[in-house]
Amino acid sequence: NTLVVDGHRVRVRALHAPEVDEPGGAAAKEMAALAILGEHVICTGVDTDRFGRLVADCTMSSDGADFAEVMIRAGHAVHCPAHGRPDLGSLPDNGFKLPAYCR
After folding, report:
1. pLDDT by residue (tens digit) across 51-83?
2. Strand positions, DSSP E, the chain
């Protein structure tokens, strides 16, 4: 759910991935690291969350791939519909339980 970009924690908008200590969490963290390996990640801020993190849509500069979409298509995250991005709604739900704040 969160990337560190230029030393700042950025919450990826409308993305829910399991926490590291939850089932699938370690694999999600590994996939996120692989997705951004060697990339320049460009995040466009849309809001600030209750923890003061920037909420943003993030893409990889090499091919413009959307980070949230990459994670969902790879099976390591799901769309968090309460936070927008209806374009992600048609992607697989991957079976992860959505927390209340996502519904």
Report:
1. 899 999 999 999 999 999 999 999 999 999 999
2. 2-5, 8-12, 15-16, 41-48, 54-60, 78-79
Report how far residue 11's alpha carbon sits from residue 67's, in angstroms, rounded to the nearest whole number.
11
CB atoms under 10 Å from CB of 100, counted, come to 6
What is the residue whose two structure tokens read 């959307």?
66
CA distance 18 to 1: 8
What per-residue confidence (pLDDT) applies to 21? 95
Task: Copy the structure tokens of residue 56.
Answer: 């943003």
β-strand partners of 58: 43
For residue 91 the two structure tokens come to 């992607």
Helical H segments across the chain, by residue range = 25-36, 67-73
Q: Are 45 and 56 in contact (CB under 8 A)?
A: yes
